[in-house]
Automatic annotation (TrEMBL):
Keywords from the UniProt entry: Pyridoxal phosphate
InterPro entries in the record: Aminotrans_V_dom, Cysteine_dSase, PyrdxlP-dep_Trfase, PyrdxlP-dep_Trfase_major, PyrdxlP-dep_Trfase_small
Protein name (record): Cysteine desulfurase
GO molecular function, one term: catalytic activity
Domain Aminotransferase class V: 9-368
Cofactor(s) the protein needs: pyridoxal 5'-phosphate
Pfam families reported for this sequence: Aminotran_5 (PF00266)
Gene3D superfamilies: 1.10.260.50, Aspartate Aminotransferase, domain 1, Type I PLP-dependent aspartate aminotransferase-like (Major domain)
Tagged with keyword Nucleotide-binding: no
Superkingdom: Bacteria
Length: 384
């Protein structure tokens, strides 16, 4: 059992965020008072259906899409899998070629790999520059007549690099047979992008102070896509299964509050990020893996000769929670695929630390974290 700290410092917001108290209260109320199946035709069902419709309409308006293009899922992993496999299967008659990148989340990587290994699709993995952003020149070269799908993330979850979605869209949309899926998880309510020409997008509620197990999938009406989960007429036949009323109804408020906070506190987060850059960018024995061009919400660096595990355990002992690579790969002893794709060597990739910030993060928390990292660095590097 690990020690419980009086004032723990949580800096792992890219992994998940705490649920807002108002969302917890609403979840409780909806669960108690609106339990009926939204697809039932009786009074109770229709009452629930009205609330789900209201939430869906708000989301559609925010994303500038049609209400029937908003699908509630169990999380972004499901949205990514459903989009990638569903679009690939439905468009196989047009081509067999898919493009993703070398720095995607495991849910995108896994879906593409399965299409390649089990279903005979051909997958190309576009490279990234030294900041982690997709190499647009290479993307242009990889697109072929038989490319049916390009699946890329908007903001990288390990290093915070931001892809130029507008430019990616204009490159991909030159080919009329190519559909574009964007993993927008780390961009939502932080780095908005235009969805107009994008065919499919995934989001997750627990990254924006909502409940876990709640995802969104924006699937444009014109996009042929086979459902991953078969069922009845729920969600326009795109995703079978009884809708999670609570998660669906909470989405609208979760997004509205996250957008408000992002507007109010973006500069605050930027200042904290600046402090991390100013402290570590010229520090001997440290290599930055994030760039100032990326998202201020995610800062990643390697403290050379101090393995990720040593740094994380040292910080953990002082009540400071950070991570190394993506939480989905946190049990892996392999170097981060993102850092390797960015050109890092194994030593650098195995000594990375990710500090991810929130509007809730204070300057005192960052100062304490900097001080503790410096102490651990000095101690371990001195021992070598
Ligand atoms: C970029 C990215 N995509 C997808 C996911 C998966 O989201 P979820 O936890 O809702 O399945 C995550 C979460 O770690 C993520 O950071």
């Amino acid at each position: 059992m690990q020690k419980v700290h009086d004032k723990p410092i949580y800096l792992d917001y890219a992994s998940t965020t705490p649920i807002r108290p108002e969302i917890i209260a609403d979840a409780h109320k909806i669960q108690q008072e609106f339990f009926e199946n939204a697809d039932s035709l009786h009074y109770g069902g229709q009452r629930v259906s009205d609330l789900v419709t209201k939430s869906r309409q708000y989301l559609a308006k925010q994303f500038n899409v049609l209400p029937q293009e908003v699908i509630f899922t169990s999380g972004a992993s499901e949205s990514n899998s459903a989009a990638i496999k569903g679009i690939a299967f439905a468009n196989k008659h047009l081509g067999n070629h898919i493009i993703t990148s070398k720095v995607e989340h495991s849910s995108v990587m896994g879906a593409c790999k399965q299409l390649e290994d089990v279903f005979g699709f051909e997958v190309d993995y576009v490279g990234v520059d030294e900041t982690g952003s997709v190499d647009l020149h290479q993307l242009k070269q990889l697109i072929r007549k038989d490319t049916i799908l390009v699946a890329l993330l908007a903001v990288n979850n390990e290093v915070g690099s931001i892809n130029d979605i507008q430019e990616i869209t204009s490159i991909v949309k030159k080919n009329p047979n190519t559909y574009l899926h964007i993993d927008g998880v780390q961009a939502l309510a932080r780095h908005d992008f235009e969805l107009k020409q994008i065919d499919s997008v995934s989001f997750s509620a627990h990254k924006i102070y909502g409940v876990k197990g709640s995802g969104l999938w924006i699937l444009k009406a014109h996009t042929p896509c086979l459902p991953l989960i078969n069922g009845g007429q729920q969600q326009y036949g795109k995703r079978g299964g009884t809708t999670d009323n609570v998660a669906a109804i909470l989405w609208a408020k979760t997004l509205r509050l996250a957008l408000e906070d992002s507007k109010t506190y973006y500069n605050h987060v930027q200042e904290l990020s600046n402090l991390l850059y100013e402290t570590f960018e010229n520090e001997p024995g440290i290599v930055l893996n994030s760039s100032r061009l990326g998202s201020p919400y995610i800062f990643n660096m390697s403290v050379l000769n101090v393995g990720s595990e040593i740094m994380m355990n040292g910080l953990n002992a002082k009540g400071i929670a950070v991570s190394a690579q993506s939480t989905c790969n946190s049990q892996s002893l392999k170097p981060s695929h993102v850092l390797m794709a960015m050109g890092a060597n194994e030593k650098r990739a195995l000594s990375s630390v990710r500090i991810s910030l929130s509007h809730l993060t204070t300057r005192a928390e960052i100062e304490k974290t900097i001080e503790t990292i410096m102490e651990i660095k000095k101690y371990v590097q001195h021992e070598l």
